[in-house]
Amino acid sequence: MPAYWLARAKELDPIQYKKYTDRIPAIMAKYGGRVLSRGAPYETMEGPDHFDRFALIEFDTTDNVRRCFESPEYQEAAAFRRHGAGENEFTILGGGEYTV
């Protein structure tokens, strides 16, 4: 069952944040991630509009999402944004219909 990496971000230091975003496509591809949307224009229809960047990455499984996120190469790239370059929220969303 596919799983999705949903990312919401707010860039605080674009130069440092770019050091993170430049590395991400290759890292995600290594774990089977396929970019569905990254940095595209968006419109918040309801709720707070705190973030200014969004990404949706599809993986084959939830385990692949976790392996990517926990990988040494991802953690090294994430260090650029974790030290003040941005605020992020990441969510793993399983694919499929679960509403009863």
- Using only C-alpha atoms, the radius of gyration works out to 14 Å
Characterize the main sheet: 4 strands, antiparallel
For the biggest β-sheet, the strand order reads 2-3-1-4
Q: So how many helices?
A: 4
State the helical fraction. 25-40%
CATH architectural name? 2-Layer Sandwich
How would you classify the helix and strand content by structural class? alpha+beta
Mean pLDDT: 93
Shape: globular
Which spans of ≥5 residues are poorly predicted at pLDDT below 50?
A: none
Terminal-residue CA separation: 18 Å
Quick one: CATH class?
Alpha Beta
Q: Which topology does CATH recognise?
A: Alpha-Beta Plaits
Strands, count: 4
Run of helices and strands: EHHEEHHE
- Overall number of domains: 1
Strand portion: 25-35%
Describe this structure in words.
The protein has 100 residues and is an alpha+beta fold. It has a single domain (3-94), classed as Alpha-Beta Plaits. The chain is 35% helix and 30% strand. It has helices spanning 14-21, 24-30, 62-70, 72-82, and strands at 3-11, 34-38, 53-59, 86-94. Strands 2-3-1-4 form a four-stranded antiparallel sheet. Helix 1 (14-21) packs antiparallel against helix 4 (72-82). It is globular, with a radius of gyration of 14 Å. It starts with a strand and ends in a 6-residue tail after the last strand. The mean pLDDT is 93.
Brief overview, please?
This protein is an alpha+beta fold. It is 35% helix and 30% strand. The chain has 4 helices and 4 strands, in the order βααββααβ.
